[in-house]
Amino acid sequence: MSDLNSIDALEAEIAAAVSVAPDLAALEELRVSALGKKGRVSLLMRGLGQMSATERQQMGPRLNGLKSSLSDAIASRKQALEYAELEQRLANETLDMTRPVRLGPLDTGRVHPVSQVMEELAAIFADMGFSVAEGPDIEDDHHNFEALNIPASHPARQMMDTFYLPPRDDGTTMVLRTHTSPVQIRTMLAQKPPIRIIAPGRTYRSDSDQTHTPMFHQVEGLVIDTETHMGHLKGCLEEFCKAFFEIDAIKMRFRPSHFPFTEPSAEVDIGCARVGNEMRIGEGDDWLEILGCGMVHPQVLRNVGYDPDEVQGFAFGIGIDRLAMLKYGMPDLRAFFDGDLRWMKHYGFRCLDVPTLAGGLSP
Ligand code: PHE
What is the Cβ-side half-sphere exposure of residue 91, based on CA atoms within 13 angstroms? Predict the structure, then answer.
Protein backbone atom coordinates (compact mmCIF):
# COMPACT_ATOMS: atom_id res chain seq x y z
CA MET A 1 0.00 0.00 0.00
CA SER A 2 2.79 2.32 0.91
CA ASP A 3 4.04 1.70 -2.64
CA LEU A 4 0.77 2.93 -4.06
CA ASN A 5 1.06 6.07 -1.96
CA SER A 6 4.58 6.72 -3.08
CA ILE A 7 3.44 6.27 -6.68
CA ASP A 8 0.78 8.93 -6.12
CA ALA A 9 3.46 11.20 -4.72
CA LEU A 10 5.78 10.47 -7.62
CA GLU A 11 3.02 11.17 -10.10
CA ALA A 12 2.17 14.43 -8.41
CA GLU A 13 5.79 15.48 -8.29
CA ILE A 14 6.56 14.72 -11.91
CA ALA A 15 3.25 16.09 -13.17
CA ALA A 16 3.91 19.33 -11.29
CA ALA A 17 7.38 19.64 -12.79
CA VAL A 18 6.02 18.91 -16.28
CA SER A 19 3.31 21.52 -15.97
CA VAL A 20 5.89 24.26 -15.33
CA ALA A 21 8.69 23.02 -17.62
CA PRO A 22 10.00 26.30 -19.03
CA ASP A 23 10.94 25.05 -22.50
CA LEU A 24 11.10 22.03 -24.77
CA ALA A 25 14.62 21.07 -23.67
CA ALA A 26 13.67 21.02 -19.99
CA LEU A 27 10.57 19.03 -20.82
CA GLU A 28 12.62 16.47 -22.74
CA GLU A 29 14.95 16.13 -19.76
CA LEU A 30 11.97 15.45 -17.52
CA ARG A 31 10.62 12.87 -19.97
CA VAL A 32 13.92 11.00 -20.06
CA SER A 33 14.27 11.05 -16.26
CA ALA A 34 10.77 9.59 -15.84
CA LEU A 35 9.97 7.46 -18.88
CA GLY A 36 13.40 6.94 -20.47
CA LYS A 37 15.14 3.56 -20.28
CA LYS A 38 16.62 4.33 -16.87
CA GLY A 39 13.84 6.66 -15.88
CA ARG A 40 12.14 6.45 -12.50
CA VAL A 41 8.86 5.03 -13.87
CA SER A 42 10.69 2.54 -16.09
CA LEU A 43 12.70 1.28 -13.14
CA LEU A 44 9.52 0.79 -11.14
CA MET A 45 7.98 -1.17 -13.99
CA ARG A 46 11.04 -3.33 -14.22
CA GLY A 47 10.47 -4.16 -10.51
CA LEU A 48 7.14 -5.83 -11.39
CA GLY A 49 9.00 -9.04 -12.26
CA GLN A 50 10.15 -9.52 -8.71
CA MET A 51 6.68 -9.04 -7.23
CA SER A 52 4.21 -11.67 -6.15
CA ALA A 53 1.22 -12.30 -8.37
CA THR A 54 -1.19 -10.35 -6.11
CA GLU A 55 1.16 -7.48 -5.74
CA ARG A 56 1.67 -7.41 -9.48
CA GLN A 57 -2.09 -7.43 -10.04
CA GLN A 58 -2.36 -4.28 -8.04
CA MET A 59 0.80 -2.52 -9.10
CA GLY A 60 0.76 -3.40 -12.79
CA PRO A 61 -2.31 -1.38 -13.77
CA ARG A 62 -1.26 1.43 -11.43
CA LEU A 63 2.18 1.73 -13.02
CA ASN A 64 0.68 1.56 -16.53
CA GLY A 65 -1.75 4.25 -15.50
CA LEU A 66 1.14 6.32 -14.17
CA LYS A 67 3.08 5.89 -17.40
CA SER A 68 0.20 6.88 -19.61
CA SER A 69 -0.90 9.82 -17.48
CA LEU A 70 2.66 11.18 -17.43
CA SER A 71 2.97 10.62 -21.21
CA ASP A 72 -0.24 12.54 -21.70
CA ALA A 73 0.90 15.33 -19.41
CA ILE A 74 4.23 15.59 -21.23
CA ALA A 75 2.53 15.56 -24.66
CA SER A 76 0.10 18.29 -23.71
CA ARG A 77 2.85 20.41 -22.13
CA LYS A 78 4.88 19.88 -25.28
CA GLN A 79 2.03 21.08 -27.42
CA ALA A 80 1.52 24.12 -25.22
CA LEU A 81 5.23 25.00 -25.37
CA GLU A 82 5.35 24.56 -29.14
CA TYR A 83 2.28 26.70 -29.53
CA ALA A 84 3.76 29.41 -27.35
CA GLU A 85 6.96 29.28 -29.33
CA LEU A 86 5.04 29.66 -32.60
CA GLU A 87 3.07 32.57 -31.16
CA GLN A 88 6.29 34.21 -30.16
CA ARG A 89 7.74 33.77 -33.66
CA LEU A 90 4.61 35.08 -35.32
CA ALA A 91 4.69 38.10 -33.05
CA ASN A 92 8.36 38.76 -33.87
CA GLU A 93 8.07 38.19 -37.58
CA THR A 94 5.07 40.35 -38.36
CA LEU A 95 5.43 42.52 -41.45
CA ASP A 96 4.28 46.11 -41.33
CA MET A 97 2.45 46.30 -44.63
CA THR A 98 2.10 50.05 -44.33
CA ARG A 99 5.84 50.70 -44.49
CA PRO A 100 6.97 52.37 -47.74
CA VAL A 101 8.94 50.16 -50.12
CA ARG A 102 12.57 51.18 -50.51
CA LEU A 103 13.19 52.25 -54.12
CA GLY A 104 15.57 50.13 -56.18
CA PRO A 105 18.04 51.30 -58.85
CA LEU A 106 15.40 51.17 -61.57
CA ASP A 107 13.46 53.84 -59.72
CA THR A 108 16.29 56.02 -58.46
CA GLY A 109 18.61 55.93 -61.50
CA ARG A 110 18.15 58.60 -64.14
CA VAL A 111 18.80 58.78 -67.88
CA HIS A 112 20.73 61.90 -68.93
CA PRO A 113 18.66 64.35 -71.05
CA VAL A 114 21.19 64.01 -73.90
CA SER A 115 20.69 60.23 -73.98
CA GLN A 116 16.94 60.73 -73.75
CA VAL A 117 16.90 63.18 -76.66
CA MET A 118 19.07 60.80 -78.72
CA GLU A 119 16.47 58.09 -78.12
CA GLU A 120 13.74 60.49 -79.16
CA LEU A 121 15.64 61.37 -82.34
CA ALA A 122 16.14 57.71 -83.20
CA ALA A 123 12.41 57.02 -82.68
CA ILE A 124 11.33 59.97 -84.85
CA PHE A 125 13.74 59.31 -87.71
CA ALA A 126 13.23 55.53 -87.61
CA ASP A 127 9.59 56.28 -88.33
CA MET A 128 10.71 58.15 -91.46
CA GLY A 129 12.84 55.22 -92.61
CA PHE A 130 16.25 56.30 -91.27
CA SER A 131 18.68 53.95 -89.60
CA VAL A 132 21.41 54.91 -87.15
CA ALA A 133 25.06 55.09 -88.29
CA GLU A 134 28.19 55.65 -86.23
CA GLY A 135 31.76 56.85 -86.65
CA PRO A 136 34.81 57.37 -84.42
CA ASP A 137 35.32 60.42 -82.17
CA ILE A 138 38.98 60.55 -83.22
CA GLU A 139 39.00 61.28 -86.93
CA ASP A 140 41.62 61.77 -89.59
CA ASP A 141 41.95 64.97 -91.54
CA HIS A 142 40.51 63.32 -94.63
CA HIS A 143 37.13 62.32 -93.19
CA ASN A 144 36.68 65.37 -90.96
CA PHE A 145 37.74 67.96 -93.56
CA GLU A 146 39.21 66.97 -96.91
CA ALA A 147 36.48 64.64 -98.19
CA LEU A 148 33.88 67.15 -97.00
CA ASN A 149 35.35 69.73 -99.37
CA ILE A 150 37.19 71.62 -96.64
CA PRO A 151 40.79 71.96 -97.92
CA ALA A 152 43.68 72.84 -95.58
CA SER A 153 43.50 76.55 -96.39
CA HIS A 154 39.76 76.80 -95.84
CA PRO A 155 38.64 79.34 -93.24
CA ALA A 156 36.12 76.80 -91.90
CA ARG A 157 39.04 75.03 -90.22
CA GLN A 158 39.71 78.06 -88.00
CA MET A 159 36.00 78.54 -87.49
CA MET A 160 35.72 75.12 -85.96
CA ASP A 161 38.40 75.57 -83.28
CA THR A 162 39.71 72.08 -83.87
CA PHE A 163 41.42 69.99 -81.18
CA TYR A 164 44.48 68.39 -82.79
CA LEU A 165 46.16 65.30 -81.37
CA PRO A 166 49.99 65.04 -81.30
CA PRO A 167 51.31 64.03 -84.75
CA ARG A 168 51.72 60.28 -85.25
CA ASP A 169 54.88 58.51 -86.42
CA ASP A 170 53.75 58.57 -90.06
CA GLY A 171 53.41 62.36 -89.87
CA THR A 172 49.61 62.45 -89.92
CA THR A 173 47.66 64.37 -87.34
CA MET A 174 44.35 63.09 -86.00
CA VAL A 175 41.64 65.42 -84.70
CA LEU A 176 38.72 65.15 -82.33
CA ARG A 177 35.90 65.34 -84.84
CA THR A 178 34.51 68.86 -85.01
CA HIS A 179 31.13 67.69 -86.32
CA THR A 180 29.30 64.45 -87.14
CA SER A 181 29.60 65.13 -90.90
CA PRO A 182 32.55 62.71 -91.31
CA VAL A 183 29.99 59.94 -90.70
CA GLN A 184 28.39 61.05 -94.01
CA ILE A 185 31.65 60.15 -95.77
CA ARG A 186 32.09 56.85 -93.91
CA THR A 187 28.51 55.82 -94.66
CA MET A 188 28.66 56.71 -98.34
CA LEU A 189 31.93 54.77 -98.69
CA ALA A 190 30.45 51.73 -96.96
CA GLN A 191 26.95 51.66 -98.47
CA LYS A 192 25.29 52.13 -101.82
CA PRO A 193 22.42 54.57 -102.45
CA PRO A 194 19.63 54.85 -101.51
CA ILE A 195 20.90 55.99 -98.10
CA ARG A 196 18.91 57.30 -95.17
CA ILE A 197 20.85 57.58 -91.95
CA ILE A 198 21.14 59.65 -88.85
CA ALA A 199 24.41 59.70 -86.92
CA PRO A 200 24.14 60.97 -83.34
CA GLY A 201 27.32 61.39 -81.33
CA ARG A 202 29.94 63.47 -79.56
CA THR A 203 31.71 66.35 -81.25
CA TYR A 204 34.50 68.63 -80.04
CA ARG A 205 35.48 72.28 -80.43
CA SER A 206 37.67 74.47 -78.29
CA ASP A 207 34.91 76.70 -77.00
CA SER A 208 33.30 77.28 -73.61
CA ASP A 209 30.56 79.57 -72.33
CA GLN A 210 26.95 79.32 -71.18
CA THR A 211 25.84 77.74 -74.47
CA HIS A 212 29.11 76.11 -75.61
CA THR A 213 31.14 73.27 -74.12
CA PRO A 214 34.36 71.76 -75.56
CA MET A 215 32.47 68.49 -76.00
CA PHE A 216 28.91 68.60 -77.27
CA HIS A 217 26.53 66.44 -79.27
CA GLN A 218 25.24 66.56 -82.81
CA VAL A 219 23.03 64.41 -84.92
CA GLU A 220 23.87 64.21 -88.59
CA GLY A 221 21.28 63.32 -91.19
CA LEU A 222 22.01 62.09 -94.69
CA VAL A 223 19.71 61.10 -97.53
CA ILE A 224 21.07 60.02 -100.92
CA ASP A 225 18.75 58.89 -103.70
CA THR A 226 18.16 59.34 -107.42
CA GLU A 227 15.74 62.21 -107.03
CA THR A 228 16.13 64.36 -103.97
CA HIS A 229 15.59 68.09 -103.71
CA MET A 230 15.26 70.94 -101.22
CA GLY A 231 11.53 70.23 -100.92
CA HIS A 232 12.30 66.83 -99.44
CA LEU A 233 14.80 68.38 -97.07
CA LYS A 234 12.29 70.99 -95.92
CA GLY A 235 9.49 68.47 -95.48
CA CYS A 236 11.72 66.10 -93.56
CA LEU A 237 12.95 68.78 -91.14
CA GLU A 238 9.47 70.17 -90.62
CA GLU A 239 8.12 66.71 -89.77
CA PHE A 240 11.03 66.24 -87.41
CA CYS A 241 10.48 69.55 -85.58
CA LYS A 242 6.77 68.93 -85.12
CA ALA A 243 7.37 65.44 -83.80
CA PHE A 244 10.24 66.48 -81.54
CA PHE A 245 8.59 69.51 -79.94
CA GLU A 246 5.25 67.67 -79.92
CA ILE A 247 3.29 70.51 -81.51
CA ASP A 248 1.01 70.53 -84.57
CA ALA A 249 2.31 73.67 -86.22
CA ILE A 250 5.74 75.20 -86.07
CA LYS A 251 7.09 78.38 -87.62
CA MET A 252 10.33 77.63 -89.48
CA ARG A 253 12.69 79.84 -91.43
CA PHE A 254 15.32 78.61 -93.89
CA ARG A 255 18.10 81.22 -94.06
CA PRO A 256 20.66 81.00 -96.88
CA SER A 257 24.00 80.04 -95.41
CA HIS A 258 27.27 78.42 -96.38
CA PHE A 259 28.89 75.05 -95.67
CA PRO A 260 31.68 73.73 -97.92
CA PHE A 261 29.99 70.31 -98.14
CA THR A 262 26.48 71.45 -99.14
CA GLU A 263 25.21 73.61 -102.01
CA PRO A 264 22.84 75.31 -101.59
CA SER A 265 23.11 75.55 -97.82
CA ALA A 266 20.74 76.88 -95.22
CA GLU A 267 20.46 77.45 -91.52
CA VAL A 268 17.09 76.75 -89.96
CA ASP A 269 15.47 78.87 -87.27
CA ILE A 270 12.30 77.99 -85.44
CA GLY A 271 9.81 80.53 -84.18
CA CYS A 272 9.68 81.09 -80.45
CA ALA A 273 8.46 83.49 -77.81
CA ARG A 274 10.04 84.38 -74.51
CA VAL A 275 7.28 84.71 -71.95
CA GLY A 276 8.85 85.77 -68.66
CA ASN A 277 11.39 83.06 -67.84
CA GLU A 278 9.72 80.59 -70.13
CA MET A 279 10.54 79.87 -73.76
CA ARG A 280 7.61 78.88 -76.00
CA ILE A 281 8.54 76.95 -79.12
CA GLY A 282 6.70 77.25 -82.42
CA GLU A 283 5.01 80.60 -81.96
CA GLY A 284 5.98 84.22 -81.41
CA ASP A 285 8.24 86.77 -83.08
CA ASP A 286 11.64 85.53 -81.97
CA TRP A 287 13.82 83.09 -83.90
CA LEU A 288 16.16 80.39 -82.65
CA GLU A 289 18.77 78.72 -84.80
CA ILE A 290 18.68 74.96 -84.40
CA LEU A 291 20.46 73.37 -87.35
CA GLY A 292 22.52 73.63 -90.53
CA CYS A 293 21.60 71.79 -93.71
CA GLY A 294 21.76 71.72 -97.50
CA MET A 295 21.99 69.63 -100.65
CA VAL A 296 25.11 67.44 -100.61
CA HIS A 297 27.83 69.21 -102.66
CA PRO A 298 28.58 67.44 -105.98
CA GLN A 299 32.28 67.45 -105.08
CA VAL A 300 31.52 65.50 -101.87
CA LEU A 301 29.60 62.94 -103.95
CA ARG A 302 32.56 62.63 -106.32
CA ASN A 303 34.93 62.27 -103.35
CA VAL A 304 33.16 59.04 -102.36
CA GLY A 305 32.93 57.76 -105.95
CA TYR A 306 29.32 58.71 -106.63
CA ASP A 307 28.17 60.31 -109.90
CA PRO A 308 26.35 63.58 -109.07
CA ASP A 309 24.38 63.25 -112.29
CA GLU A 310 22.89 59.99 -111.05
CA VAL A 311 22.39 60.53 -107.32
CA GLN A 312 21.94 63.54 -105.12
CA GLY A 313 20.83 64.08 -101.60
CA PHE A 314 20.57 66.33 -98.60
CA ALA A 315 22.26 66.50 -95.24
CA PHE A 316 21.65 68.26 -91.97
CA GLY A 317 23.41 68.68 -88.65
CA ILE A 318 21.52 69.43 -85.46
CA GLY A 319 22.91 70.35 -82.04
CA ILE A 320 21.44 67.78 -79.65
CA ASP A 321 22.28 69.64 -76.44
CA ARG A 322 20.60 72.76 -77.80
CA LEU A 323 17.48 70.71 -78.59
CA ALA A 324 17.43 69.27 -75.08
CA MET A 325 17.84 72.74 -73.52
CA LEU A 326 14.95 74.09 -75.60
CA LYS A 327 12.58 71.20 -75.02
CA TYR A 328 13.25 70.60 -71.34
CA GLY A 329 14.14 74.13 -70.22
CA MET A 330 17.72 73.83 -68.97
CA PRO A 331 19.33 77.28 -68.85
CA ASP A 332 23.05 76.37 -68.75
CA LEU A 333 24.72 73.86 -71.07
CA ARG A 334 27.78 73.46 -68.85
CA ALA A 335 25.64 71.78 -66.16
CA PHE A 336 25.00 68.95 -68.63
CA PHE A 337 28.51 67.69 -68.07
CA ASP A 338 29.12 68.52 -64.39
CA GLY A 339 27.86 65.12 -63.23
CA ASP A 340 25.92 66.75 -60.37
CA LEU A 341 23.44 64.17 -59.04
CA ARG A 342 21.00 66.85 -57.90
CA TRP A 343 20.85 68.14 -61.48
CA MET A 344 20.37 64.60 -62.79
CA LYS A 345 17.56 63.95 -60.30
CA HIS A 346 15.84 67.11 -61.44
CA TYR A 347 16.33 66.97 -65.22
CA GLY A 348 16.96 63.24 -65.77
CA PHE A 349 14.46 60.68 -67.03
CA ARG A 350 13.28 57.45 -65.47
CA CYS A 351 14.98 54.55 -67.17
CA LEU A 352 11.85 52.68 -68.17
CA ASP A 353 10.24 55.71 -69.80
CA VAL A 354 11.53 54.77 -73.24
CA PRO A 355 10.39 57.29 -75.86
CA THR A 356 8.25 55.92 -78.69
CA LEU A 357 6.10 57.70 -81.23
CA ALA A 358 3.06 55.63 -80.26
CA GLY A 359 3.51 55.87 -76.50
CA GLY A 360 4.65 59.51 -76.41
CA LEU A 361 8.13 60.91 -76.76
CA SER A 362 8.47 62.68 -73.46
CA PRO A 363 7.07 61.28 -70.21
N1 PHE B 1 28.48 70.01 -89.94
C2 PHE B 1 27.82 71.28 -89.84
C3 PHE B 1 28.23 71.95 -88.52
O4 PHE B 1 28.69 71.27 -87.64
C5 PHE B 1 26.32 71.14 -89.88
C6 PHE B 1 25.83 70.63 -91.18
C7 PHE B 1 25.65 69.29 -91.38
C8 PHE B 1 25.52 71.50 -92.20
C9 PHE B 1 25.17 68.81 -92.58
C10 PHE B 1 25.04 71.04 -93.41
C11 PHE B 1 24.86 69.71 -93.58
O12 PHE B 1 28.08 73.12 -88.36
Answer: 6
